[in-house]
Amino acid sequence: MTGGRTTPAARIAAAAAAALLAAVPLAGCGEKAERGEAGETGAVDERTLAVAIADAPGLTTVAGALTEAGLAGVFDGPGSYTLLAPDDDAFARLEGQVPALGDPARRAELVAILRGHVLPGHLTPDAIRQAIAARKGPVTVTNLADGLVTFTAEGDSLTVTGADGSKARLSGTPLVVSNGVVLPLDGVIKQAGEGQAARE
Amino acid sequence: MRKFLIGAAAIALAAGGALAEPGGKGGGSGHGKGGGPDHAAMSHGEGKADKGASGGPGRPERGPDKRAERGSDIRAERAERGPDNREQARQERRAVHSDERREDGERGERGATRQAGKSERAIERREERATREAERRVVRDVRNDREPRLRGDDGRIARTDWFAEGSERFGLIDGCPPGLAGKNNGCLPPGLARQRDRDWGQRYHQPAWWGYDRAGAGRYFYEDGYLYRLGGDDSVLGYIPLLGGALSVGNPWPSTYEPYPVPQYYRDYYNLGPVDSYRYADDVLYRVDPQSGVIESIAALLTGDRFAVGEPLPAGYDVYNVPYGYQDQYYDTPDARYRYADGYVYEVDPTTQLVTAVIELLA
Questions:
Q1: Interface touch B58/A15, C-beta < 8 Å
Q2: Other C-beta atoms within 10 Å of B106: how many?
Q3: Taking the CB of residue A29, how many other CB atoms lie within 10 A of it?
Q4: What is the ipTM of this complex?
Q5: Among A3, A16, A21, whose Cβ lies nearest the Cβ of B53?
Q6: What is the pTM (predicted TM-score) of this model?
């Protein structure tokens, strides 16, 4: 930050260098125990979340939903986000329970559901696991829908529970990109607005 | 939605906070160690500083939607501001060390040329360090502004008091939405009029499902992008335009939601442009066409969480989440934790869980 502004190309080169550095063990760096690394997710690439999601196999439904909801631009900007992305199989299982794409009348519902799957910042599975280990139990993360999600570790897998109790497992390969992370899920962690009674 | 952090004081306070000595013990508000990021930078040594000088890996361009239209102006504005800030830091630093300079000069007059040169280099190093501090823009005393309620064109109160902590009303507009009012049906949502979908158990009729936990007691009805608050006779008492519904790309911005000038830092961070080109509601920043007021895109989703130096870290930040491009500077240590929200990194004391510094990410 001492050298003023740089070109995007320079940033991309720096990102690549950073990814390489991240892979090098640093002696005496125990203090970095909770730093989020690319780790199992591989190198951080220079794409934005919007591009990474659009390109991701198995996430075509959520990609389409984000575009339709007008949220794709959010993931192409300067803010850093982590998207808990239900995979195509999850949407297929929930057919009829989640507002269908292409229905403007229910788009607000779709957005509300998606918003519950967005977390602030750059959360990697490694960072989540380390936090769980440090706390010796579940950890909570705020979402962008005024709620909290809870991560728990069950063996090698991570489970996330939404504010309404809906659970899903992290599945597939996380996408770690310049402005955030995509964590594929095998389910949805915010129930649709239509369906079961929700009287309090 | 929760309160949206107002960092209006951030810019003004940045230089003062930034001028704290490495380690921070002599500067800032006196909270905590005050040395988190400084410590981090020092621990990483020159190599990391050099890396940082490249602008940071993975830092995305700001505001893609408007880059083509306004980007050059914004970049120019930043280009002017950045060096000014650095120069200001240098000048303040020079003022602080003016006595030292005089002393150095006197020594030089005594013929200790080599000593003077050494001192100059030391001063230069200190200035460089001060400059780096200023660029890091460590803000140690951000406070939250309270925005007065805004009055709509028709005199009704648009209760845009999302900003007022503890408020029980969030974004609820009194009266009838313009589209519905024009139908002359007594402001009756069509779905309600047709008596269909009146399963009050549907989640979407509950404000909490939309994130409006504190919307206030009452009966609500969701339809077609609005959440209506109903009176006992099903008359519409008020309404909330919803993200993705009434507040969708291509729709006009509700006139009762007057433009809200978010703090300059947010404008810069999210590349929002002038005040007539963006809008804020419900922890969401929108880009709008300045002429037509039509929503062009959604610029950012915000947590709205409240952070302030000396106050506890809000719930929901158990996991390290600093943006990748800044992880070399702000990583957890036994003495400090770092968490990100809404364009800021927050330093937290692991023991007390109190926020010890608010750090802007723009240089």
A1: yes
A2: 11
A3: 12
A4: 0.80
A5: A3
A6: 0.67
